[in-house]
Specification:
By secondary structure, the chain is α/β, with parallel strands linked by helices. It has two domains: 161 residues, D-Maltodextrin-Binding Protein, domain 2 (3-Layer(aba) Sandwich), CATH 3.40.190; 124 residues, D-Maltodextrin-Binding Protein, domain 2 (3-Layer(aba) Sandwich). The protein contains 14 helices and eleven strands. Strands 7-6-8-5-9-11 form a six-stranded mixed sheet, with helices on one face. The chain has a five-stranded mixed sheet with strand order 2-1-3-10-4, sandwiched between helices. The longest helix is centred in the C-terminal third of the chain and has 36 residues. It is globular. Bound molecules: calcium ion (CA). Calcium ion binds next to loops.
Amino acid sequence: MKRRQVVTGGALAASLALAGCKQDAASTKEARSAQKITWKMVTAWPKNFPGLGTGAEFLAKAITQMSGGRLTVKVFGSGELVPAFEVFDAVSAGTAQMGHAAAYYWKGKLPEAQFFGAVPFGMSANEMNAWLYHGGGLQLWEEAYQPFGLKPMPAGQTGVQMGGWFNKEINTKDDIKGLVMRIPGMGGDVLARAGGTPQALPGAELFTALQTGTIDATEWVGPYNDLAFGLYQAAQFYYYPGWHEPTACLEAMVNQQAFDALPEDLQKVVEMAAMAANQHMLSEFTANNQRALETLQHEHQVELRQFPPDVMEEFKSYAADVLQELGQHSELSQRIYQSYKSFADQTQKWLAVSELAYLQAR
Ligand code: CA
């Protein structure tokens, strides 16, 4: 370039220099685009576990395929690279570039995360997505994870879960007292106020804990998942509805540095794949839950039970307290609580004249 400038000088040199810069930029971009990148995705689920593990696989495959193989994502089940409850730290540290889990698992280090997982008596999947994508929820979530070098994205909704598996009937509020139950997040705090003892165990440990009597009861997800875990072999009564998780919003988290290092089009691929995974999981649960419930009832003689109204009322009242207290944890927590609460109040009014009215009428 220098020699050309000397020879031709003036305007021509300037235009040549500009062309050279453009060419350099183009070839850098080309080189970046041609680069093959491999990411590790650590998950909080057993590999290929129905709904959750398959949801993580769907996301990984979508990114790999949509990028034409330029960004390959390799999935690790819980315990393969890191244990289920170390996904957050592993992605934050860059041990893996990506993770798939549930935000309420991190309540110990980041209590605010619980708003983005599941809120007892809170928003359903439809409402939650509306808040995250169109109500400022996702920006607040990003703000909460930013200090950990993580970028969160919703990447799967379970829809309304089941109340859980019990070996004794729940007929009155007194039946909750002394109950040792696996129930994570704010649902666990509500159970504690009702006199129970909440436990947070990863999914892979539930069956043994229930069968050996380490716990008296457990919730997991819904019929599709619970059938796969064989929980019906360890408990007789299957309660509904899952007041503690009106949906669990599963998360994809990406190491921010790894994300920033991607070319722009691959960043978009990751975001769009997560959005597709979010919808795909909800559809998968809705499509499979009733079939699985029928198998549980008819082939495994599981007894379906509804929580009595007074038990539900008690849970609901404690849930409001738990949520409000979480909202006072920090300045950020207050803003998330206000945003969540006002959005939930608004959308509930709309759903009363749309979905709720329709579901009752049909
Ligand atoms: Ca659950």
